[in-house]
Amino acid sequence: MIAEGAISATVSSVEITDLRVPETEAIPRPDRALLAKLEEENRRIEADAKSASLTTVHSRKSSDTSQISLASATSSSYEAEARVSGGSNGEEDLWSLWGRIVSNWETEWKRRNQFVRDLVRQGVPHHFRGIVWQLLAGVDASPEKKLYASYIKAKSACEKVIRRDIARTYPEHDFFKEKDGLGQESLFNVMKAYSLHDREVGYCQGSGFIVGLLLMQMPEEEAFAVLVKIMQQHRMRDMFKPSMAELGLCMFQLENLVQELLPDLHVHFQSQSFSTSLYASSWFLTLFTTTLSLPLACRIMDVFLSEGIEIVFKVALALLTLGKNDLLSLDMESILKYIQRELPAKAEADQDAFMNLSYSIKVNPKKMKKLEKEYTVIKTKEQGDIAVLRCLRQENRLLKQRVELLEKESSALAERLVRGQVDLAEGEEETFALAREVQALRRANVDAQQRLAVAQDEIRSLEMTIAENNSRQSSLEGIEGAEGGGGGGGELARCLQRELVRARLHAAEREAAERELTARIADLENENKSLRRQRVDNNVAHLQDELIAVKLREAEANLSLKDLRQRVSELSDAWQRHLQEHRQEAPPTPVQSNVVSDIMATPKKLLRAWEGRSADMQKLDEELMTTRIREVEALTELKELRLKVMELETQVQVSTNQLRRQDEEARQLRENLDAALQRERVLQARQRESQHKYADLESKAKYESMQANIRNMEDAQRIAELETEVSEYKLKNEVMATEGELRNNMDDSDKVRELQEQVAELKAEVCMHYTHTLYAYN
Amino acid sequence: MTTAPGGTNNFKVVLLGEGCVGKTSLLLRYIEDKFNDKHLTTLQATFLNKRLNIKGKRINLSIWDTAGQEKFHALGPIYYRNSNGAILVYDITDEDSFGKVKNWVKELKKMLGSDIVLIIAGNKVDLEHERTVPLEEAESYANMVGAKHYYTSAKLNQGVEELFLDLTREMLEKYEQNSQTEVNRTSQVLVVDDETPVQSSCCSGTKSN
To answer: Which intervals hold domain Rab-GAP TBC (chain A) (predicted)?
Structure first.
C-alpha cells in the first residue's frame, strides 16, 4: 500500500519522466502481493456496500498529504479533499480499498460497477487519481500511446497558436509557470500531438486546461491517451470541432434545464438578456478547470470520466442553485462578476456539500435527448432560414440592380418624353401662330372680297351709266339730226369754254388718280413683300404679274389721256375756227352740214327759212359743239370707268392670288400641325413601347428570381442527398473497419480453437496415459 | 446607442482580434488600470462597463471582450451585433494578427455598414524592437478603410486612455448624426440583423496578454 501510494504520488511530480515506464508496469506486482489482505477487507466493505463507511483512522494521513502537496502546488486543497473522504479515520481504509480496486480493476469495475462509481463520487484519493483516470478512460492498452512518440517528432500547423496559449494556461501553477519549463513543454507536446491526431479539431482554446489537469496527474503519453478518450467518448471532441455545434447544444440543454429547475433565475437572466453562453461556455469547454479550484476540478473530472458529461450539467445547475438568491437581485454586469468571483468561492467553501448538491440534481437523459432533437430541429430550421435568407438577399441584390437599371432606362425614357412634349409644345405654339396668321389672312381675304364686291357694284353702276350715256348720246344725235346747228354762238362758246375747263380739270384729276394708282401699286408691292417675306420667290412672280398689269393699265391710261388731249385740242381748234368764222362772216352761215344744204334744196320755203333761221343755225352749231364736247367727256368718262374696271380686275386678281397664297399657307400650317400631331403620336407609341419593355423586364426578373429560388432549393436537396451518401459511405467504412477487426478476432478465435483442440488432445493423451498406468497397475 | 431616461448614452464597444494580441489586457488597463501578464486565455465573451463624461454628456460604455480563436465565432456574432464601436487589436510583432484585423474590417463593413466606428489598435509597442508589421502599412490601411489607428501598450499604459476617449467621441458624433437620419439607419440595421447569423467565421478578438 505504501509503495503504491508513493508511486502514484510521483506520477504527478516533476521528476516523473524516469519513473514513467516502470510505474505502469510495476503496479500489478505489489497488487498481487497485497491481494490477499485487501480481499479480506473488501469483503467487509462490501457488506455495507454503498454506505461506504470509511471510518478508520490512519496515522499516515498527514504525512501522505504533505507528500502529495509537494507534488502539486495547492496543498491546502488536498487537505480539503482529505476531509471529503469522510474524516481522517477512513483514510487508510479508503486507500486500501482503492488499492484493491485498482489492482483488480477489470473485475471490480464489472462486478461492482455501481459501487465503484459511488466511490468515485466520493472523490478518488489523490495518490490513485492518475491511475484511476487512466483506468476509467480505459487507456491501458490503447494504441494512441504508441502513436504519441511519432506525433512528438512531427510538425503541426497549429504550433504557433498552441504556443500562444501555453503561457496563459495555469499561469499561477508551479508546474506550468516556468517559461519553457518542463510543464509548459509537456503541455505543448500533448496538445501538438492531439492536433496531429485529430486534424479536424486541431487545436481549440480551452482544451489546454484539460490537458494541464491531466498532466498534473500523469506523464505526457498517458495524458495524451486519456485526452484522446475524453475527446472521443464524452462529446468533448464535438465540443471543440470548428463549428462548436456541441457547445451550442449544451448551452441549449442547460438553458432549458435552468428554465425547468430554476424558473425564477431563467426569467431574470432573460430580462437581463444574459445568455447562457456568457457564463457557461467555459464550464463546458474546460470542465470547470478555469472556474473552480483544482481539487474541485479534479473531483469533477473523476465523475466526468466515470459518468460522462452529465456531471457538467449537474455542477452547473448546482452552482446556479447556490447563487440563485444573490443572482436574482443583480444586473447583467454584476451577474457576470458574481459568477466569476463570488460563486466559485461559495462552492469551494464546502466542497463535499457542493458535490453532494450536484449529485442530488437529477438530469433526465430522455429529456436531454428530447432537447437535443429540438435543438437539431431549430438548427436545421435556422440553417434553412439562413439559406433562404441568403437566397433572398442575393435575389434582392439582383432585383435591386435590375431596378436600378430599369430606373435608369425609365429616367432616360422620361427625359425623352419630356423632350417630346417640349417639341410638341413648340409645334403647338407654331401651329397657334400659324393659325393666327391664317385667321389674319382670312380676314384680309374677306376684306378683299368685300372690296371686290364693292368694286363689282361700282363696275355695274358704271356700266349702267355708260349705257345711259350711250343712249343719251344717241338721243342727242337724233336731236342734232332733226334740228340742225343754229343757236346763240356766244353762249355756246362760253359753254364750250366751261366744258373745256372741266375737261382739263378731269384730266388733272385723272393725272392725280394715276399718281394715286402708282402709289397704290407701290403700296401693294410693299404689302405683298411684308406679307410674304418668307416666300419671296413666289411673291416676286405674282408681284411682277401685278406690276405688268398695273403698267399696262398705266399705258392705257396714258394713251387715253393723249386721246383726250388730242380731242380737247381738236375741240379748241374747232372752237377757234368757229369763233373766227363767226367774226368774219357774221350773216352768212357757213355751210356746215349736209342737213343745211339739204334744207336749202327746197327753193322758196328754204330761202325764207334761211334768213330767219341763220340765228338758229348758229345756236344749233353751238349746241352741236357742246354735245360733241359732252360726247368727248362721256367718252373720257367711259374710258376712265374702263380703266377703273381694269384696275378692279387686277385687284381681284391680286386678291385671288393672295387668297391662293393664304390657302397654300393654311395648307402648309395644317400640314405642320399634322406632322406635329404625328410626332406626338410616335412619341406616345414609343413611350408605350418602353412601358411594355419595362413590364416585360419586370416579369422576366420575377421569373428569374423564381427560377433562382427553385435552383437553390434543388441545390439544397442535392446537398442533402450528397450528405446522406457521405453518411452511407461513412457507415460502409465503419462496417468495413469492424469487419477487419472481426476478421482479426476470428484469427484469434481460430488460434483458441486450435489450442483447445491441442488441450483436448493432451487431455485425451493424459487420459490414455492414466488408463495405461491403471492397466499396468492392475 | 440607447439613451437611458437619465440622459445617459449607452454605447456598446467590442474588442476583436486574433488570440493573444492583448484585448483583455487593454480592457483591464482601461477599466482597472492594472496589468497582469498571468491572466488566463479568454474563452467566453465577457464585458465591463465604464462610465465617463464627454462634453457634459453622461456616457456608459459597455465594453465586450471576446475570445480570439476563430472557432469561437461560430457561437454567434452576438458580440458585435448592435455595437457602436469596434476596437480591432493586433500585435505589432505578429503579422498574422494584422491580417486578422483586415478580415474583421471586411466582416464588420459587410454586416454593419458604416454604422460602426472602427478603431485599429497596434498593441505591444513596448516590443517595438520586435515589430514586424510596418508602421506605414498599418496606418495607410486604417486610412483607407476609414478607421483611426492607435499604437498602444497595455503593459506601459500608452495610448489606452486616448484610444477609448477618441472612440467614445466618435461614437457620440455618429450617434448625433444618426439620430437625424434615423429612418435610414433602422433599415440598415435590419439588414445587418438578418445577415448576422450567416457569418460565422472571421476571427474574433480576444484577449491579450
So the answer is: 123-308
